[in-house]
Amino acid sequence: MNRTPPTASFGINTYSYTFSRPAAACVRSAAEAGYCGIELMIYPGHLWEGAPGDAGPAAVRRALEETELAAVSVNGPNIDLNIAAAVEEMRAYSLRTLESHIRIASEIGARFLVLGPGKANPLFPLDREILLGHLFAALDRLLPLADHCGVKISVENMPFAFLPSATDILDALAAYGHPGIGVIYDVANAHFIGEDPCAGLRLMQQRLDLVHLSDTTRTLYRHDPIGMGDVDFAAVPPVLAEIGYDRATMLEIISRRPDDDIAEGAARLAAMGFGPPYGPDAGA
């Protein structure tokens, strides 16, 4: 009888714990619960450069070494930051913060940095070419540091970004011309904007680094527990197999009762055909 827990097929994002549990404690609890990897949110009081105790990168690295849990990626407060802002000072602050995030990723051994491509004013946006210019300038600055630190930059599809869809992101990256930039594809984000996640995954397959899973509807943007929205999760595993996706998927569920809701989500998704991890590098 297979006694492998459903959690073993998934990584866990720590968004739900940013106010309540420092990152090193999250590493230990995720390992104890049986998850195969972790995506750590970089957030003051949770994980931050120079922070003391369990919120500091050194403590997180120790926890990862002790538990042998894989540090898959780091993510940050993408709603607060904006590398495509009209205000130069905002772009400069965002880039300094992201450079700090790259250093943290390197210190703890995380493979990917999740990058938000930037936001436009929804009422009176800058011309697209200007927004792309700001994004490209940001990549010019961030990529050398990321390469030096052994961290890969992966752009995520975000509804509030000026590049919300799979096609938007791929066209922008093609125009920039750097083959080493990846994509983290968020199934809930795609569903919310009316994009078919299966079609988006097929488009992204050449750059796809990681898949985020949570639930939402198309009328209210959420990262809810599985079953609280109307995402068609059952359609996704066959597409992941079709495109040769070989990593564990990442549960990015935001909840006030995260331990239970994330574990229940893992069980529901495993029953729909997600996992076990697709290969020996799953979660790495």
From TrEMBL:
Residues 28-270 form the Xylose isomerase-like TIM barrel domain. Gene3D superfamilies: Divalent-metal-dependent TIM barrel enzymes. InterPro entries: IolE/XylAMocC-like, Xyl_isomerase-like_sf, Xyl_isomerase-like_TIM-brl. One of its GO terms (molecular function) is isomerase activity. Keywords: Isomerase. SUPFAM superfamilies: Xylose isomerase-like. It comes from the Bacteria. It holds the Pfam family AP_endonuc_2. This is Sugar phosphate isomerase/epimerase family protein.
